[in-house]
Design goal:
Radius of gyration: 36 Å
Number of helices: 5
Oligomer: single chain
Structural class: alpha+beta
Shape: globular
Order of helices and strands: EEHEEEEEHHHEHEEEEE
Number of domains: 2
CATH class of the largest domain: Alpha Beta
Helix content: 10-25%
CATH superfamily of the largest domain: paralog of FGE (formylglycine-generating enzyme)
CATH architecture of the largest domain: Alpha-Beta Complex
Number of strands: 13
Length: 320
């Protein structure tokens, strides 16, 4: 009988290579067991690496104060005589409420009525200041108002001037007195109305007519007790009786102070988010100091931005 070679290489004569076949079966079973064990181990390893189920965020506690994303439950209707200023080329607008000033004497003679005034219901937001700063109202370098386009605009900031507090809907801060005045000049040229910064007397009159109760300041102001060390979106506290928001705290506000010789300078009023309750309000007047721009590395230092003035903002008045 001819010689045959078994499947595993054994040479046998006649009959079947039963021993070799048994060996093959044993090897196959061992390989199958090893493969199954490997697959099971891989599955366990995948389970270990899989991220745990994501838990739903906890609900806000019932005592949480008004979040910046939400306006007051009931936004008051602006008082009679208010108006809305739309900004051409954008979707932005500003609300102005009447500001009645006492009549004043004209050189000791007959009294004359004060000019008709309105004051912005909120501090100027980044949304509005960015339009001025970056020319968001322009197309191909033009906005449709040659006078507005001719107004000198601030240099672009070299750091984030909002300090990470928030941008859309938040008060524009770190703006110099010059930067605030130029915004008013641009707004005037763009709209055909006269806009400017309020005088100290005008701002204090607006603050007085807001009639904020001294025992309920936290309902109307962001300050040291509730601001968590930052500004907050405008109009997220209650409005005063005159329809103005944030006259107390949040950002301190540029106003113009004129001395007996007619010299004008910028001072800030109202206090800011880091101040205690007794340091905010109508009587709070803080003049500019070089410390507000001490860390600016440029030489000369920027005339547009306050590197250390992340608490200074402004609102505007309209004069007829």
């Amino acid at each position: 009988m001819p010689e045959r070679v078994s499947v595993d290489g054994d040479r046998v004569r006649g009959g079947r290579a039963t021993t070799s076949i048994a060996r093959i079966r044993t090897v196959h079973l061992g390989l199958a067991a090893t493969l199954l064990a490997g697959l099971a181990a891989a599955a366990l390893l995948a389970d270990d690496k899989a991220p745990p189920p994501t838990a739903a965020p906890p609900a806000a506690p019932a005592t949480t104060k008004s979040p910046d994303a939400a306006k007051p439950a009931s936004t008051p209707t602006p008082p009679a005589g208010s108006f809305t200023q739309k900004i051409d080329g954008t979707t932005h607008e500003m609300t102005f409420v009447p500001l009645a000033m006492p009549a004043k004497a004209d050189g000791g003679n007959a009294e004359k009525s004060a000019p008709k005034l309105w004051i912005a219901s909120t501090e100027t937001t980044w949304d509005l200041y960015d339009v001025f700063l970056f020319g968001f109202d322009q197309k191909d370098g033009k906005s449709g108002s040659a006078d507005a386009d001719a107004v000198t605009r601030p240099s672009k900031p070299y750091i984030s001037m909002d300090r990470g507090f928030g941008h859309a809907g938040y008060p524009a801060i770190s703006v110099s007195y010059l930067g605030a005045k130029k915004f008013c000049e641009w707004l005037s040229a763009k709209t055909g109305k006269k806009y400017r910064l309020p005088t100290v007397a005008e701002w204090q009159q607006a603050c007085a007519t807001a009639a904020i109760p001294s025992d309920r300041v936290a309902e109307f102001a962001w300050f040291a007790d509730n601001a968590n060390g930052k500004t907050h979106a405008v109009a997220t506290t209650k409005a005063g009786a005159n329809g103005c928001f944030d006259l107390y705290g949040n950002a301190s506000e540029w106003c113009t102070q004129v001395d007996d010789k007619g010299n004008a300078k910028g001072v800030t009023l109202g206090g800011m988010f880091k101040d205690k309750a007794d340091a905010i309000g109508c009587a709070s007047i803080v003049p500019y100091t070089p410390d507000w721009n001490a860390s600016d590395p440029q030489y000369p230092k920027s005339k547009w931005w306050l590197a250390d003035g992340g608490f200074v903002g402004f609102r505007v008045v309209c004069e007829e």
